[in-house]
Write a structure and sequence with these properties.
Helix content: 25-40%
Number of strands: 6
Strand content: 15-25%
Largest sheet: 6 strands, mixed, barrel
Number of helices: 3
Distance between the termini: 60 Å
Radius of gyration: 23 Å
Order of helices and strands: HEEEEEHEH
C-alpha cells in the first residue's frame, strides 16, 4: 500500500509543482522580445520646454490610417508625431543630429514603445529629416508650443501601437 501511494502521489505532486513553473516559462518565452511600457498620465507629461535628445523612428505602413491617441487617423503625409513624454498637442522641432536637417511636428499620439526612442514621426517627416533609409536617427526634440494644461488633460488617451 505504501508503495502504491508513493507511485500515485509522486507523479501527482510533480504535476502540482511543475505545471505552474512550465506555464511561467511559456509566458516568458511568449513575451520575450516584447516591451511593455505604460505611458504616464497627462499630469506627468514633460511641460518643461527643455530639448531632449534620443533616437527617432518613423511609423511603419501598418499604422497608416490607424487611430492615434488624439482620435485622428494617422496620415503618412502629415506632420504628426508620437511621444511618451510630451503632452498631446505639443508643437515641437525635431532635428536630425547626423545631418542637422529639421522639421516641425505636432504630437498627436503616444509612443514609441521601443527602449531608447523618444519620438516617432511620419514617413513624410522622416524623409524631410533624411532618416527614411536608416529608419532610426539621433535627434533633438525641442518643444516650441505646449498646449494649455486643461487641453492636454482632456485629450483622449490610449495606446495605438
Amino acid at each position: 500500500m505504501k508503495m502504491l501511494r508513493t507511485l500515485l502521489l509522486g507523479p501527482a505532486l510533480w504535476l502540482l509543482l511543475a505545471v505552474p513553473v512550465q506555464a511561467e516559462r511559456a509566458e516568458k518565452r511568449a513575451t520575450a522580445g516584447t516591451v511593455r511600457q505604460v505611458a504616464p498620465s497627462d499630469r506627468h507629461r514633460d511641460r518643461s520646454g527643455q530639448t531632449r535628445k534620443g533616437k527617432a523612428s518613423y511609423y511603419s505602413r501598418r499604422f497608416h490610417g490607424k487611430k492615434m491617441a488624439n482620435g485622428e487617423a494617422m496620415k503618412p503625409d502629415s506632420n504628426a508625431a508620437a511621444s511618451k513624454t510630451l503632452p498631446v498637442g505639443t508643437v515641437a522641432k525635431v532635428t536630425n543630429l547626423d545631418n542637422n536637417r529639421s522639421d516641425v511636428v505636432v504630437v498627436k499620439d503616444r509612443g514609441p514603445y521601443v527602449p531608447g526612442r523618444i519620438i516617432d514621426v511620419t514617413p513624410r517627416t522622416a524623409d524631410k529629416l533624411g532618416m527614411k533609409e536608416e529608419g532610426v536617427a539621433p535627434v533633438a526634440v525641442t518643444p516650441l508650443k505646449l498646449p494649455p494644461q486643461n487641453e492636454a488633460a482632456s485629450a483622449p488617451s490610449g495606446k495605438s501601437h
